[in-house]
Amino acid sequence: MGLQQIKDRVEKEAQRVGRSPADVTLIAVSKVQPNARVEAVLQEGHRVFGENRVQEAAGKWPAFKERFDGVELHLIGPLQTNKVRQAIDLFDVIHTLDRPKLAQSLARLMAETGSCPRLFIQVNTGEEDQKAGVHPAEADGFVALCRDLGLPVEGLMCIPPVDEDPSKHFALLAEIARRNDLKGLSMGMSGDFEAAIAAGATHVRVGSAIFGDRDYA
Ligand SMILES: *Cc1c(COP(=O)(O)O)cnc(C)c1O
């Protein structure tokens, strides 16, 4: 695999379904990957990256950002309220807005600092106990709450259950976004990003297919 191959596949699938490739942002998910692999992808010119832990991102991205201009960093993992301040310094986009307490915390910091990262609301489309995200039935209400707080909600994000056909989850997320007039759809990973693009994804989050397998050892 590798960056260029994945970029080609993203472009091809967008064209196949009659969408503009420019409307699909490829987020290279660099969590757990050795710095040398991340640097290689930066050297190839890619600038949009995703991390799922604030602490890990804080350990490696400030140095990369000094060396490479135009990096855009996306938080794709859970955000604890005590890490919000650190997160808004580091990340341009947060994909995991999933509860009122976090929304209120972001709104407070936005009032204080005058800025806020772009936001996606995570929806637990499979209603899995172990997963974060608002349930589909609560999504409209939560979007409204975030809008009332003035938060810059750009779209929705989901992580489908591993053992199910992801397409129905992508379709459900797209439908919730449509009825709430939200343009952004963060969905699709290494194994299913093409299906996500066919369902309307504006942001695909691809890790191992670009960088190789993650070594958690
Ligand atoms: C790790 C991760 C990804 C990337 O997964 P791959 O299967 O390596 O592409 C995408 N989204 C989220 C939320 C992740 O945590």
From TrEMBL:
Transmembrane segments: none annotated. The modification N6-(pyridoxal phosphate)lysine is found at K31. InterPro entries: Ala_racemase_N (IPR001608), PLP-binding_barrel (IPR029066), PyrdxlP_homeostasis (IPR011078). Residues 3-214 form the Alanine racemase N-terminal domain. Coiled coil: none annotated. Keywords: Pyridoxal phosphate. It comes from the Bacteria. PANTHER family: PROLINE SYNTHETASE CO-TRANSCRIBED BACTERIAL HOMOLOG PROTEIN, PYRIDOXAL PHOSPHATE HOMEOSTASIS PROTEIN. Belongs to the pyridoxal phosphate-binding protein YggS/PROSC family. Pyridoxal 5'-phosphate (PLP)-binding protein, which is involved in PLP homeostasis. This is Pyridoxal phosphate homeostasis protein.
